[in-house]
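Case study B.
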Amino acid sequence: MKVLVAVKRVVDYNVKIRVNSNQTAVETANVKMSMNPFDEIAVEEGIRLKEAGTASELIAFSVGPKQSQETIRTALAMGADRGILVETDIIVEPLAVAKCLKAIVEKENPDLVIVGKQAIDDDSNQTGQMLAALLGWSQGTFASKLILSDGSIKVTREVDGGLETVDLKMPAVVTTDLRLNEPRYASLPNIMKAKKKTIDVTNPEELGIDISPRLTVLKVEEPAKRLAGVMVEDVVQLVDKLRNEAKVI
Amino acid sequence: MSVLVIAEHDNAELKPATLSTVAAAAQLGDVDILVAGENCNAVANTAAKIAGVGRVLKADALALKTGLAENVAPLIVQLSSGYSHILAPATTNGKNIMPRVAALLDVAQISEITSVVSADTFVRPIYAGNAMATVQSDDAIKIITVRTTGFDTAPAEGGSATLEDVSNITDAALSSFAGQELTVSERPELTSAKVVISGGRGMQSGENFPMLEKIADKLGAAVGASRAAVDAGFVPNDYQVGQTGKVVAPDLYIAVGISGAIQHLAGMKDSKVIVAINKDEEAPIFQVADYGLVADLFEAVPDLSAELNK
Ligand SMILES: Cc1cc2nc3c(=O)[nH]c(=O)nc-3n(C[C@H](O)[C@H](O)[C@H](O)COP(=O)(O)OP(=O)(O)OC[C@H]3O[C@@H](n4cnc5c(N)ncnc54)[C@H](O)[C@@H]3O)c2cc1C
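Model:
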């Protein structure tokens, strides 16, 4: 069984982001970039399926600028077998990513695609569901556990009320939540080995896909700042303030 | 313009998230509601009473009972013609179903809007709410999820919508429901509670959460948690507040033993009043707190409980 995982190059989750001075975007120049944390979980799950003997090959896919090769390289160092980059400098929306993924899925015929539930830059939470729709496949979103059996997959999902389990017919798309696994770090020897693994590079034109954005970003602003608060001495003062000043209890 | 709102419900009860979504939809045009489920008559009747709703479309079938996206999305697509916008709350259901609808219609989805600027322009948070983007959509039909904390709730009473049954429901037979483990609680729902008290890694163990529950019961509050507390197994996943968990904006949010990472702040910084109890005076949570108390929580929380009795 072949497994495809999608990885996105995003501003590292530890970076305190800033809006650029002309309020058109978030500053990304000279900012640390990393693999989207949910995608690390996707890669890890794919590797575990390989280690369990369930998956025979793990392909890491990305859409983005040339530097996304580094993100794919990270996935290869963690344990993916080869990479595919759909190169573009346009900021791609989830629908465009899903269309690129669909084209690759039709070439590679994986039985399972695993993607992160959301990217921590645009916080869209759409790509996996859109891919499943375009392929007419089943979807298991916000997964915290996967159990594969012949032709089907049992996915435990993190939902608002707790946990839910669904049975999906394969092929399927799964999106990862935080508790699915704890991703490994790439070891130095594996980072060296990853340099020899192949990354095929293509682009949206070659795939015949229109990736032009459907949304125009008119403005990006800082959110309203909270006014500075006060420190209280003890619990008695706290309760007094909540009762008589803030009047919230 | 006509707007279709997808109701959030569990076949027995309509959830408050629906009311905020109706309020957002009412800024765009005439509002209809789709209640897709099984044996969901009571929900449809409740939805028909929401002020300002014109029609309630009831799709009642076994295939829709558990809200499987593979079955609900094609139904919404089938109903989509004639609507300029389709809105669902940004609950796990809405997030699961709506992108599938958008892709089937070959349009973008606008996720988690916090305000409506005009019929084609919306504001939504990006980067864990550290930036707000104003986006305009050219698509013929706008598929939107609504961050409920950004909107008031439409009045639950006062409307008299007509009820219509939807037929032609099919089971895509791609997926099936296999079970659930829901958290049972008498306390208010986290996302609609007026008061929330959350615990973090500083709580040290799930056995210490009853300390917070005691206070919650006194204040009519819901109990939440940081990711670290959920990852450590202190409390179930549905307690998680933050960028990738639930977004809350109660009148009062009390953070106990939570450091205040940006991913946590993303889920609670729009609360009216924030209280932080942390033993580290440098903890970033104090930068957003209206009232900060530097203290060991194992002393402060029992004291707070006692003080609230006075
Ligand atoms: C992709 C991604 C998504 C994430 N999503 C979320 C999310 O949705 N929600 C979320 O919360 N986090 C999220 N995080 C995690 C986030 O970055 C932090 O790691 C997490 O919020 C920390 O939780 P915490 O504050 O409980 O723990 P810590 O940061 O360890 O803080 C514990 C605090 O407790 C205090 N403390 C300890 N003992 C006591 C005591 N006896 N009395 C008083 N105070 C005490 C300490 O001083 C400290 O400030 C995400 C991270 C990533 C990478």
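The mean pLDDT of chain A is 97. The remaining cases will be described in the next quarterly update.
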